[in-house]
Structures are given as structure tokens and as C-alpha cells.
Amino acid sequence: MLSFINTNNLWLIAIALVVAFFSSVASFRLATDLWFNKPDHAKLWLWIGVAVTTLGAWFIHAVCVYTVDGKPVMVLLTTSLCITSLILVTLIISMLDLFLRSSKSSSPHSRENLSQMAMVDTLTQLPNRRALMQHLDAATRRSERTGATVAIAFIDIDNFKQINDSLGHQVGDEVLKEVSKKLIAAVRGCDEIARIGGDEFVALIEEVKSEEDCVTIVERMVSSIREVSIANHSDWNVTASIGVAVFPRDGHIDALMSAADAAMYRAKKDGKNQFRFFDAEIALASDQLLETQHDLKHALANDELRLHYQIKIDSVTREPVGAEALLRWEHPVKGLLTPSIFMPAAERFGLSYAISNWVLEECCRTLHRLNFQHIPFSISVNLSNQQLRNSNLVSDIKDMLKRFSLPSNCIMFEITESAALKNQKLFNAQLQRFKEAGISIAIDDFGTQPSSLAYLQSLEISELKLDPVFISNIDKNHKTRGIIQAVIALAHVLELNVVAEGVETEDQRRILTELGCDQMQGFLISRPVPEEQLIRLLKKLSIQLESSSEFIDDLKNI
Questions:
Q1: Is 272 helix (H, G, I), strand (E, B) or coil?
Q2: pLDDT digits (tens, 9 = 90+) for 204-244
Q3: Cα gap 94→27, rounded to integer Å
Q4: Per the confidence metrics, is the pTM higher than 0.70?
């Protein structure tokens, strides 16, 4: 029938087709299976499948050459027919396999599993925010029917960002798992623990007969979290702040969550590692924060923020050597506001980073104007905790300086001693980046934290700023004077510049000069002034003055 084929060898073509077909289907089947579970491996097996199919085609061609009786055209036709059949059947089988598994994954049982997964936090296996809101809705409905009280406790791990930044996210994840286990053990069987994101947990406490019952449970949660230990890091203590709100007294679902969140922030503000119940005082503070948040967004959009500059002078020559940039908000109703009034709201609602960037850009703009008027000057800028956590901070600053054609030595950044102590590993890493960029760092409010002197020798800093609390007593208390003298001597041994803040009297200025303090700032020298006034002041003081009284009077009259 097929005269050009040796029928005695026809079975060889059949065997070649079967071998090539099954090897191709097997390799593509494995590739599609891995595609769902291990996508990176699936790409490799997909190429293996292509290679296996190619080898199968070559095998078929070799068999056809051997089987067909010396007719090249017939060899080509037979080989093409067999290879086309192989590829088509392989593709059909692979597509059918994908279709069947897709149908299986969309079966009611699979959809139920997916629905359950959508309600569970993958790290801790606790209910997630979505599940919590459903449980809370059901609990409040039951409470309305029975009259029972329901409470929710908003739990936030203290200083968790430091754990992540210093020890790594893997250690942070282990801490979250341990905290979830401790919380489950601390509550009753009828209560629910959920993780709603990051380091935030919520406990839904039902069947509460009195507030005292709730207090017992919350105290148990606070104590249990203290028991969490971090492997190989025994010096780290895990604590949490908890805010509690009660239904129906503190509102329905959304209001209840906001109330518990506000109470948690009050617990943090009061020292952390404790709990607070939502009350009228917290409600008022929360309302004020929300109002401030709204006004701050409006302030950023409408250019209501201002920078004032407080002059620093050389203690010996009395020449101005720089200024500290101080943020102010020119509120349309409340007048000129200091950061202590509005920055807590900015930090809580994520606006501090935008404000800090505005401050940096405005300082660079001022320095550019001063350089244009041939007035060499430097400005120090306060660094926020949120900025400190930004790994791209130094590169962003370098880009900003480049944009305004400014040298790196015209700006200095100040960070409070408390922030430096709490984030030592992160702070040291940033210090190294600042050093490489040629940008100086100062420790602000120095002397207000315990163990201040021990870590100075390891820090790549340029300046210490003595806290005003010491300066205010220097002319009245000999012990204070002795402390400042020792700090100045130590700083000079470490080749650090010392700046005294809060200098308000001539006696303070004289004593600080005698003790060897390098620079000073305060109301005696100059109050914070806007940019225009700063430029006028610097122009007037361009010639060195000999009399300190003349100098100070000159400043006050500008």
C-alpha cells in the first residue's frame, strides 16, 4: 500500500512516535505543574520540554531515513507528517491538562479553601483584618441582643521597627510568631486574636461582665509579651502598648477601632509597655490630632510652613558661624505654631517625612541665596526618626545639594541623643554613609540620657549640643558647672565641637567661654528669625565686632 516504506520496519516509526510523544508530554506536564508551585523552576523545565520535543523530532527523522527506501522527498514528507502530529498532540494534551486543573481549582472545595486563606494571616495563621471585622460585626450584634459588653484591645509591639532594622526581618517575623502564641495563651477560649498588619494585633474580648474582667485579661497580655525572648539577642526586650475600647460605650465598629487605636497611642506616649482605656481625655486629644492632620495637609498644599533660623556664634571671636533651622507653622487661625504642637500628629499620620523633605529643600534654597550674595554660611537641620530609617537618605541629600550647587560642608544634621541610643545599629550605619559623603552630624540634647559618655568614642560625629537644662543652672549650681566642664573636656579629647544651647544671660555666656565651650546659641545671642532677617543680620555683622555687649545689642536691634 505504501510502496516507499519498508513494511518490515514500519513498527520503528510507531515506536519513535510513541517515545517522542510520551517524553514530550511528560516534560511539558512537569513544567505546567511546577508553574503553579515553583515558577522559577518551571521556566527551566519548559525549556527542557522544548529540548525533549526537538530530540524526539530528530529521532523520528532518523527512523524515517532508515525506514523509507531511499526517496528523499518521501523521507521529508513522512518526517514532517510525524513531527506535526507529535507537536499537535503534545500541545492538545498539555492544554487539556491545564484546563482540567483549572477547573479543579475552581471547584467548590477549592474556592472554599481560597476563601479560608483570604481570612488568615499567612505568617502567624491568626485571623486577619477581614476576618476580625466579620467577627467584630457578629459580636456587636450579639451584644445588642443580649446586652453583654464587648471590648477590643489594640496591641502594638513597642519599637518593632528597631528590631526589624537592627536584627533583620527574619528575626522580626519570629518575634511576631512568638507574640501571637503568647497572646492566644493569655486570652480565654471565647476570645479572638487577630493580626491586622505589621506589628499590630487586635484582641476581641466577649462576655465581659465588668471592666475589671477586661483589665485582668489585658494585664495578662502585657505580661505575656514581656516573656517573649529573641534567640541569641538576650539584650532585647519585647514589650507592647495596648489600647482598650468598649462596646457600646465607645461607639460602633469603626469608631470602636479608632478609639482603641487612640488609647494605644496614649499608652505609648505615657511610656509604653502598658495599657490604657479609651476615655474623654483621649477622645479630645484624638479629635485634636485628626483636626491637626487635616490642617497639616492643607498647610503643605498652601505653603503655610516656615523656617526660622537661630544664630550660632563662636565663643571667643563672637562671630556668627552658622544657624539652626527651626520649623514653624503659620496657622491661619492659631498663629505661629512650634513643632511640639503639630509634629506628633505628623508622625502618627505619616506626614513627617514630607515635612522633613520640605525643611531640607528650604534650607538648601536659603543657603543658595546666601552663596549668591557671597555670604559663606552653614545651617544645621534636625533629622527625624523616620528620615533616619531611610536607607537612601544620604543619596537623597547629595542629590538635593547637587541641585542647588552646594558643597557638603555647608549643612549639618542634628539627631537627638535619645533617637541615637534607641537606634544605635541603624544610626551607626547612617553615620558611615554621612562620613563617606563628607556631611557632618551633631548629637542634639546631649546629657539627657543615661550612659551618654560610653558610646561617644565609637560614633563618627562632629559636634555635641549641650541640652539647655544644664545651661540654665550653670551660673547657680557648681555641680552643673563641673559636669559641663567634664563633658567639654571629654568632647575635646574626642575632637568634637561643643555647642551650648539655651544661652540667655551674660553670666552663662562668660562661664561657658571660660570652660572652653566652642560655640553657643540662645536668646542672648538671637531669637529665631525668618530668612530675610537672617540675611540682613549677617550682612550687618560681616565685620568682626570686638565688644560682646555691642555684638549682642546689635543682634537684638535687628
A1: coil
A2: 998 887 777 888 899 999 999 999 988 777 778 899 999 99
A3: 10
A4: no
